[in-house]
Amino acid sequence: MEISSKEHTHLFSNNTIVPVDRSSFKSESSASKEKQSCCGGIKIFLGALSFVYFAKALSGSYLKSTITQIERRFDIPSSLVGVIDGSFEIGNLLIIILVSYFGAKLHRPRIIGAGCLIMSAGTFLIAMPQFFMGRYRYERFPSTINSTVSLSPCLQDKSQTPLSALEKSQAKINAGCEKEAGSSMWIYVLLGNLLRGIGETPIQPLGITYIDDYAVEENAALYIGCVQTVAIIGPIFGFLLGSLCAKLYVDIGFVDLDSVTISPKDVQWVGAWWLGYLIAGVISVLAGIPFWFLPKHLPKPESRKDSSSSSEHSKFIIEENKDQRTSYWQQAKLAEMAKDFLPSLKNLFGNPVYILYLCASIIQFNSLIGMVTYKPKYIEQQYGQTSSKTNFVIGLINIPAVAFGIFSGGLIMKKFGIGVLGAAKLSLGSSFFGYLLLLSLFAMGCENSDVAGLTVSYHGTKMMTDYEEALFSECNSGCSCSQNDWDPICGENGVTYVSACLAGCQASNGSGKSTVFFNCSCVGTFESSQSSSAVVGPCQKGNECPKMFLYFLVISVITSYTLSVGGTPGYILLLRCIKPHLKSFALGIYTLAVRVLAGIPAPVYFGVAIDTTCLKWGSKRCGGRGACRLYDSSALRYVYLGLTLVLGTVSIFFSVAVLWVLRKRSSPQDETLSANGERGACGTKSRKDNFVNSDQLIQSTYWPEKETRL
């Protein structure tokens, strides 16, 4: 606000002896108030954006934590779960280009607010199938259910089973088939996740560029680092919420929990997966409210008003006509905006630094997205942990390491005044050492559990034949068993049997979780067996497995931190090598490419690869293959970690190419001066004959204070 001449006259009427430089006073007062207004506005936006990042990260991470729950609840394979997970990226794909390009010219905060409402609607839709599906049914032999009919697990003669019981059982199965045949409720989960993706689209490209436009130059990287760090708190709460819900039975509030005969350790256990989505939906609604009250524009800092001293990217990218650039931002007609679309796209893809970094990011995100999506499943299957404990460990130990790594990256950039070339080096170094650490995880796996007919024979030797044929043996040949059932029991010999029938058990005592089976002929024939009894549920993994799990956690935390350090430098590298008016568009294209070429396919082909390691598939009530019940631990380890490392190695080669291009354009003098904090290392050679398209490359001219003060 300016101070009028009348106000000055009134203010100094009684002190005319003291000379006052009114113009200087007015200028300083105006600058001071504007600075306060600018700082206050950007900090309010920073807080609101951080909360939105928290909300979207919470719902996204909660989805990751419920992958195995959804797989079991809807009885679908990992590959289909991967499609559901990838539908979020498909939602981004539908509108990302339009939002990032046209959104930058419209009211960015309100667009973000509208996105939050759409995101919450999708989150609520994911939870809806729980209220329209029937109660969850799991495979259990009738004697383990509170039943008045006592049945022998090994049905040597079907006539020993009361006819009324068989008829009732068959009638229930037929009724279930009729209900399942007319519903594929997992489609609602897919559509809800698709809607979440649409709502999340404007948050990153519009939010980050809004900060970069109106924040003070030296604070931009720190603000971006803070937003990303706060966003990591979302996954912490998301996985902890997943841990809590996984402990609760899926139909809690709808059934008598005393009648539930499975425990969270059982592979058929499904937690209250739907409850967390209701909570996440409410948080998303609350996160979007502040954006409806934020302005379209904020006052720009004094340091950015003069284009000759504005942000670093405007200094090492060749200037265009300033009048044209000013009019570019003032255009209000959508037709004129659309006219510049193709030239802008050509400009971006003509920038080799942008293209190489884009390729490196796409491949690395393939690696990271696949790894993160199936990490809960990997821990559950490899180390025999429950879903609740797995989510708790990831949320409380792994995610904070990622947050600390991202924040450390931004802090290092600011502390040492690292320029674009330094950011490329830091990003490359973090990836290299992170994937190097990941190599050691190959040695930290558990052996397969001893499961008769699948991983070991009924006599205790390792399996070499096809498992379907090996499920039957002489010890259970007199029983009428189905090879499709999965109702594991643990024999006194420490071996797991697929079902009490396949274990040859002749009698049982007790009901529910306390059922004990006796006279199990297959348990008695095992080499190390001393009795023929068994209890409900699979046997625990080997004694070495808990120790291996501890080693896995330590290396996993260090790896997560190391890989995350390169996050903020990567963002700065992306922003600083793009023309100012193309920042939103460049981030939108970047996000689009990552979504389409990494976010969508990675969960699918990782899921397909993981499905190949399955040893025992479940069966649906009406026939057909259901969810996997048992995986080959060794094969799972090599497939999961191997895919992650191969993709990560390829991305490192592209990162090396980015560094090589930047070095080629940076003179040795620039590099030396940059190390002393006197000059940026992202300068290019000044000779125009080194450029094919000079407007697309980094400018070489030395500018005062060219270094990035991050």
TrEMBL record:
<keyword id="KW-0813">Transport</keyword>
<dbReference type="GO" id="GO:0006811">
    <property type="term" value="P:monoatomic ion transport"/>
</dbReference>
<feature type="transmembrane region" description="Helical">
    <location>
        <begin position="392"/>
        <end position="412"/>
    </location>
</feature>
<feature type="transmembrane region" description="Helical">
    <location>
        <begin position="424"/>
        <end position="444"/>
    </location>
</feature>
<comment type="similarity">
    <text>Belongs to the organo anion transporter (TC 2.A.60) family.</text>
</comment>
<keyword id="KW-1015">Disulfide bond</keyword>
<feature type="transmembrane region" description="Helical">
    <location>
        <begin position="40"/>
        <end position="59"/>
    </location>
</feature>
<keyword id="KW-0812">Transmembrane</keyword>
<feature type="transmembrane region" description="Helical">
    <location>
        <begin position="80"/>
        <end position="104"/>
    </location>
</feature>
<keyword id="KW-0472">Membrane</keyword>
<feature type="transmembrane region" description="Helical">
    <location>
        <begin position="220"/>
        <end position="250"/>
    </location>
</feature>
<dbReference type="GO" id="GO:0015125">
    <property type="term" value="F:bile acid transmembrane transporter activity"/>
</dbReference>
<dbReference type="InterPro" id="IPR020846">
    <property type="entry name" value="MFS_dom"/>
</dbReference>
<keyword id="KW-1133">Transmembrane helix</keyword>
<dbReference type="InterPro" id="IPR036259">
    <property type="entry name" value="MFS_trans_sf"/>
</dbReference>
<keyword id="KW-0406">Ion transport</keyword>
<dbReference type="InterPro" id="IPR036058">
    <property type="entry name" value="Kazal_dom_sf"/>
</dbReference>
<keyword id="KW-0445">Lipid transport</keyword>
<keyword id="KW-1003">Cell membrane</keyword>
<feature type="transmembrane region" description="Helical">
    <location>
        <begin position="270"/>
        <end position="294"/>
    </location>
</feature>
<dbReference type="GO" id="GO:0015347">
    <property type="term" value="F:sodium-independent organic anion transmembrane transporter activity"/>
</dbReference>
<feature type="transmembrane region" description="Helical">
    <location>
        <begin position="110"/>
        <end position="132"/>
    </location>
</feature>
<dbReference type="GO" id="GO:0016323">
    <property type="term" value="C:basolateral plasma membrane"/>
</dbReference>
<feature type="domain" description="Kazal-like">
    <location>
        <begin position="469"/>
        <end position="524"/>
    </location>
</feature>
<dbReference type="Pfam" id="PF03137">
    <property type="entry name" value="OATP"/>
</dbReference>
<feature type="transmembrane region" description="Helical">
    <location>
        <begin position="548"/>
        <end position="575"/>
    </location>
</feature>
<dbReference type="InterPro" id="IPR004156">
    <property type="entry name" value="OATP"/>
</dbReference>
<feature type="domain" description="Major facilitator superfamily (MFS) profile">
    <location>
        <begin position="45"/>
        <end position="666"/>
    </location>
</feature>
<feature type="transmembrane region" description="Helical">
    <location>
        <begin position="639"/>
        <end position="662"/>
    </location>
</feature>
<keyword id="KW-0325">Glycoprotein</keyword>
<dbReference type="Pfam" id="PF07648">
    <property type="entry name" value="Kazal_2"/>
</dbReference>
<protein>
    <recommendedName>
        <fullName>Solute carrier organic anion transporter family member</fullName>
    </recommendedName>
</protein>
<dbReference type="GO" id="GO:0043252">
    <property type="term" value="P:sodium-independent organic anion transport"/>
</dbReference>
<feature type="transmembrane region" description="Helical">
    <location>
        <begin position="354"/>
        <end position="372"/>
    </location>
</feature>
<feature type="transmembrane region" description="Helical">
    <location>
        <begin position="587"/>
        <end position="610"/>
    </location>
</feature>
<dbReference type="InterPro" id="IPR002350">
    <property type="entry name" value="Kazal_dom"/>
</dbReference>
